[in-house]
Amino acid sequence: MTFRGIIFDFDGVLIESEFAGNRHLAEYLTDIGHAHSPEEAMAHYMGLSGRDFIDTIEGRIGRALPDDFHAAREVENERVLAEGIGEVVGAIAFVRALPADLPRAIASSSTTRWIRTHLRHIGLEDAFGDHVYSGKEHVARGKPAPDLYLHAAAAIGVPIGDCVILEDSPVGATGAVASGAHVIGLCAGTHCPPDHAARLKAIGVHDVAGDFAEVARIVGV
Fold first, then answer.
1. Considering the entire predicted model, what is its pTM?
2. What is the Cα–Cα distance from 176 to 7, expressed in whole angstroms?
3. Does 50 lie in the same domain as 73?
4. Average pLDDT in the 196-205 region?
5. What is the DSSP letter of 169?
6. Alpha carbons 36 and 213: distance in angstroms, whole number
7. Which of 125, 127, 147 is nearest to 135 (CA)?
8. Backbone angles phi and psi of 182, in degrees to 5
9. Element (H, E) at 132
């Protein structure tokens, strides 16, 4: 297959942040009386951001989150930003193997500060140039709306139908499929349960890849 541009989600695609973040969320919710496992947190909240993230949590627990929720999340985020998180196995080598002239971008629900800091940690800070886009900062509607992917495709100058998107979360995959791009559901992260591929296929991703070697085969690099 030939694609003219490639768009990456970030958390769970390039870095192993999904399990750690959802474990912390599950611990917090359990501590305030709403028992959650990391797997439950990932199943229900992974890929959401902003008001959608808060509304979904509050809808499931049936109450407003305590006043200290955001402060607790910020403390954890700052710790992780300082310490760094490892790559999803094979991610760095895959990005470095892409043709130098292939337009690429990151389209993530995380902030650009989070993305750029972790790109620096894993040695990919130069790999995407200015093309790092956040659902919190660059569009009015974040995932699962397709807007962020459409924004990224326009920014790299490639029609969305000529792009391939790498996504790991059901929320992200929903928006990616709706965008009109070719979507690869990536199940390479440690956060992906055994049924993850089936969930992504049910959403309508075009291919599922268990590792970056399979992504390379599909993309043709």
1. 0.86
2. 10
3. yes
4. 96
5. S
6. 34
7. 147
8. -85, 125
9. strand 132-134
For 21, what's the count of Cα atoms within 13 Å in the CB-facing half-sphere? Answer: 24
Residue 182's SS3 state is strand
Query: For 20-72, what is each residue's pLDDT tens digit?
Result: 888 889 999 999 999 999 889 988 888 777 788 899 999 999 999 999 999 99
Q: In this structure, which amino acid lies at residue 53?
A: F
Range of the domain at 152: 5-16+85-219
CATH of the domain at 165: 3.40.50.1000
SS3 (DSSP) at 4: coil
- 3-state secondary structure string, 55-118? HHHHHHHCCCCCCCHHHHHHHHHHHHHHHCCCECCCHHHHHHHCCCCCCEEEEECCCHHHHHHH
Residue 108 is which amino acid? S
Structure tokens at 208: 């599922």
Q: Poorest-confidence range of 48-52, 86-90, 103-107, 154-158?
A: 48-52
